[in-house]
Amino acid sequence: MKYMVRNPGLIPSMESLKGGDVGRKRRMMREMLHGCWRSCIDPDPISNQPFVADAIIANPPSFAHIHCAQALGVPVHIMFTMPWTATRAFPHPLANIQRNKDLEPQVTNWLSYGVVDLMTWQGLGDVINSWRHRDLALAPVPASMGPGITTFLKIPHTYCWSPAVVSKPADWGPEIDVCGFFMRDEPAYEPSADLDAFLSAGPPPVYVGFGSIVVNHPARLVGIVLEAASICGVRLLISRGWSKLGEGRPNTNDVFYLGDCPHEWLFKRVSAVVHHGGAGTTACGLINARPTIIVPFFGDQPFWGRVVAQAGAGPAPIPQKELDVGTLVEAIRFCLSPAANHAVQAVAETMRQEQGVNTAVQSFHRSIPLDVMCCDLLPDQPAAWTFEKPSKTGRKRLRLSNQAVSCLLNAKKLKSADLKALRTKEYDTDVKRWDPITGGASSFLGTVTDFTFALGGTFIDPWKEYKRARVSGHEAGRASGAAAMAVGKGFASMTGAVAKGGLVSLPLAVAEGLHNVPRLYGDKPREHGKVEDWKSGGVVAAKTFGTGFYDGLTGIFTDPYKGAKEGGALGLAKGVGTGTLGFVFKPGAALFGLVAYPAQGIHKSLKARMGRSHAVWTAKSALLDHDQRQHNGNPRGESKVLQVFDAYFAQ
């Protein structure tokens, strides 16, 4: 929190850079990413019951969201209290926008989101990609996709604020909802005798509190607040918070220093509230119809300050560095005015009609593919496995829950080796190639980069491993062995980088580039499907080869004919041009695809066997074993499962 107060924007201060704060935060981010992944597949730390996530709900700054979902093959849903999706309606809360008279505000607002995403990826992209490789066994996210990956993949979002204060922008798509604040029920609370006496002794006080914000000069802040209150003739209720405001000062008839107290109870008993502008505190003040003064420090706090001011429920936000007696006096007087109280009352009445939590649950349920997440034999249970078996009408596939699998294993209807971990959602993060020249060049540069990193690791990693082993107390011989292993891994990584670049990345980049060239002159190439493994790689290669040569050869005749029919002589000329280009590029894509797609499929199959599938399979298998032990080898509903299973494959 101290770091955020010292660095309220995206760019860290020189003090933080010199103090090593950035390096520490990057290490913290590595730990956080690792922890997010383990939370998706690790057993419950208290009960030790196995767990594997069927879906993920996360906020944007967790950063692990889409990557964990991609590794597991499950849906992900983003929920947050501040806007993280590009819009022309308002700027990104973390972007310090300086208005330019030459640019429309709507354009500036839209660009601010790209700037925040780009700068965030610039600082954390290497950390995220390293974690994807190490923990998730996933390929790096390309720089062209990384900054805006959730937008690119159209990940569903639910924003947890009231439409009464910030309505859904018109340029947000159907995958984005605004549901209302998440308000909890008022907790049971019994005030202390001295607090109860203070509240009863006079008119409702003005609340002042900054929660977990660590203020640099708390004594100065308290002095400003006390003087402003004296000038306005109001009583004060000051929450000490993490900054321990008013430490050492006694309570008086007009000022009470407060410890922990639920806002839901307290805000019903004050006349106005002064706080830092956190979304939850802001919502609590508004729904209780309390005029609000926001003194923002960082993050989304200025955004909420502007929202409150635009609603008329409070003055313009006062940045903490600009707070003085004069500005606070003016703000308090505004909050005590009939206009402010009338405005905040209108906002509160609308908010009280909303059901933020229920609406968010509905939004989440709309976004997940329930039709492929449920067990085919026990539809009230989530599926975890897939099973294929020949039938009279060909191979059939079933999605099975752990309980259904337990029944079938118990009846010897299938074996564990017949099962595959179910993936209910796939995310395509492959690099998009638009032409063979830039595609091939970027692939070559990527290979050079991978080789260079591997080469550097060959020299650096042995020393790291040796040092780590010695610190752990191992003898010199064992430490030297660890260093030698690191050298071997370095050479293996270099060999792998060259092999992947020459056999997979470069041919694939050229094939995809040639395949997409027709888009540049208005033609639409055929979709050849996605390569998932060596089988689908062969299918895509064969399909691309056949359609590539067919479309290239026939296009010489069909394109001029269609052009002449639609546009006369000019259309004929265009058709001759597109047909000639297609004759060159489409068969070229077909030829390169014969090598590229099978190689890509083999590479993905090997990666899946060695990496991601192992971690997910282990976690799901543990969950299955636990379910079997729970039922002591006699799963519930076995007769029903067996009956439906036999009937399904008898057809």
From TrEMBL:
Keywords, in A-Z order: Transferase
GO molecular function: sterol 3-beta-glucosyltransferase activity
Organism whose genome encodes this protein: Colletotrichum liriopes
UniProt cross-references to PANTHER family, sorted A to Z: GLUCOSYLTRANSFERASE, PUTATIVE (AFU_ORTHOLOGUE AFUA_7G04880)-RELATED (PTHR48050:SF27), STEROL 3-BETA-GLUCOSYLTRANSFERASE (PTHR48050)
One Pfam family recorded for the sequence: EryCIII-like_C
Sequence ranges assigned to domain Erythromycin biosynthesis protein CIII-like C-terminal in this UniProt record: 262-355
SUPFAM superfamilies: UDP-Glycosyltransferase/glycogen phosphorylase (SSF53756)
Gene3D superfamilies: Glycogen Phosphorylase B
Protein name: Sterol 3-beta-glucosyltransferase UGT80B1
Database matches in InterPro entries: EryCIII-like_C (IPR010610), Glycosyltransferase_28 (IPR050426), UDP_glucos_trans (IPR002213)
